[in-house]
Amino acid sequence: xxxxxxxxxxxxxxxxxxxxxxxxxxxxxxxxxxxxxxxxxxxxxxxxxxxxxxxxxxxxxxxxxxxxxxxxxxxxxxxxxxxxxxxxxxxxxxxxxxxxxxxxxxxxxxxxxxxxxxxxxxxxxxxxxxxxxxxxxxxxxxxxxxxxxxxxxxxxxxxxxxxxxxxxxxxxxxxxxxxxxxxxxxxxxxxxxxxxxxxxxxxxxxxxx
Length: 209
Ligand code: PRP
Ligand code: URA
Description:
This protein is an alpha/beta fold. The protein has helices at residues 10-20, 26-44, 85-91, 138-149, 164-173, 201-206, and strands spanning 4-6, 51-56, 61-66, 72-78, 96-97, 99-104, 111-117, 126-130, 133-134, 155-158, 161-162, 178-181, 183-184, 187-188, 194-195. Strands 1, 4, 5, 6, 7, 8, 10 and 12 form an eight-stranded mixed β-sheet that branches.
């Protein structure tokens, strides 16, 4: 069964409040999203496997811990998911990055696919899918289905804000995928926007409105 992890660290909650504020501009919004992604990344990678390797410190030889190569891939759902990549890359610089392009049709709220480019060996990696907003869950579910079609078996979903509807849909359609969020908000409005939410994440990141 898919586990919902609410990452409630006080600094994440503080930064999320700043992001929600409508008076926060694009530059600060992007910076805060990057910082939160790094902090959430710490939690989402807490159980990465470690190899033992032999090294020499200036004092003596020792067997030390190392994250093996070919372990992680970050896959943002375009556009807004891009805002979470840099923070994760700061934490795991060797992670490869794939991209899935989906946008929600404004009338039907259904996701429409327009791009998919993934690392060749993605099926060997733990894949972290990033998207700040988990609203109806349609975009996340489609992205997870696309990754599974490529052979991925070890996937986690990292969002900033979710609502019960979207979380339920992902958990029902992808029970093998754990979900990480910083907050679970109240509901969706008639336009399928999260309430209270933070508005349109893509527009706020890229300044398109
Ligand atoms: C937003 C958001 C998610 C999706 C969430 O993207 O970044 O991808 O909506 O909604 P859902 O859970 O109902 O599918 P949007 O379609 O606005 O595209 P953008 O990131 O390019 O702005
Ligand atoms: N996409 C967003 O960017 N915000 C929402 O509240 C819902 C979907």
